[in-house]
Amino acid sequence: MTKFDEATQAIRVDETTYDVCLDPGYSIGGPLNGGYLMAAILRAVVDASPHEHPVTTSAQFLRAPQPGPARVRLEQIKTGRTATMTRATLVQGDKSFIETLVTTATLADVTPEWTDRPSAAMPPVGECVKLPDPKPESNMTFNAQIDMAFDPPTIGWLTGNPTGRPESRAYFRMAEPQDPDPYVLALAVDALPPVVFSAGARGWAPTVDLTWHLRALPAPGWLTLLGSGRMISDGWFDEEVEVWDSAGRLVAQSRQLARVGRG
């Protein structure tokens, strides 16, 4: 079991309840990363499902949970031979923090009948760059859990040279050696810096809604994350992420709506 597997472990209490312990190592300046939280919820959902893979997840982030004990409460809405739909709620104390609707199915490892190409080209990994290590007082512990190499123009905001477009692109893998799986993909779709940084915004940009789809089981190796946005307006922005595996297959897609960073 890797550190990530342990940090997202869900322990069955009964057929509708699972205990989780939210790890402070996935903090982004205080709040826990949304992809990490989804991965913990999905562990419970898949364990309770007759199907192996979370093919679509829609999460509403009601408030930011604290590191420590929490529970995932499940309500199975419909189950069939090919798919099961489950409502899953992350709870701390008497409050709900994340509401999700998850469809599980069992994917085969097959060659796509048709697939589009990546929306943007990436330079080789050796020509990409890493973000500087955050200062300890920043409480950005999430960075230590992952290994990312960025397409240089998309982190120009670090030096005051944003591209002016909402975009972010990087290669991604776990810091501890681990082949990607659906739970790693849940983390990956929310791992990029907010795309509005490249448009000139800064600060924590809280996600309100995030929906992602598992399209294929990923091959070992680096994942490629391609993030973009379509509109920034009235304090809101959207972010779409494509995840491609080392075999050149589209393995995950996501779209989220978030608030423009404050402070």
Descriptive notes:
With 263 residues, the chain is mainly beta. It has one domain (3-107, 122-259): Acyl-CoA thioesterase, double hotdog domain (Porin). Helices cover 10% and strands 38% of the residues. It contains 3 helices and 13 strands; from the N terminus they run αββαββββββαβββββ. α2 (34-48) packs antiparallel against α3. It is globular and about 50 Å long.
What is the C-alpha radius of gyration, as a whole number of Å? Answer: 18 Å
Characterize the biggest β-sheet.
Answer: 13 strands, antiparallel
CATH topology: Porin
Structural class: mainly beta
Query: Helicity level, as a percent range?
Result: 10-25%
Strand content: 35-45%
Order of helices and strands: HEEHEEEEEEHEEEEE
> What is the number of beta strands?
13
Number of domains: 1
The poorly predicted ranges are none
N-to-C terminal Cα separation, in Å? 38 Å
Number of helices: 3
Q: What is the topological layout?
A:
Layout: H1 3-7, E1 10-14, E2 17-22, H2 34-48, E3 53-61, E4 68-79, E5 84-92, E6 95-105, E7 146-150, E8 167-174, H3 182-188, E9 207-214, E10 223-228, E11 232-233, E12 236-244, E13 250-259
Antiparallel strand pairs: 1-2, 2-4, 3-6, 3-9, 4-5, 5-6, 7-8, 8-10, 9-13, 10-12, 11-12, 12-13
Helix pairs in contact: 2-3
Protein name: TesB-like acyl-CoA thioesterase 3
Domain Acyl-CoA thioesterase-like C-terminal: 127-260
Pfam family, one: 4HBT_3
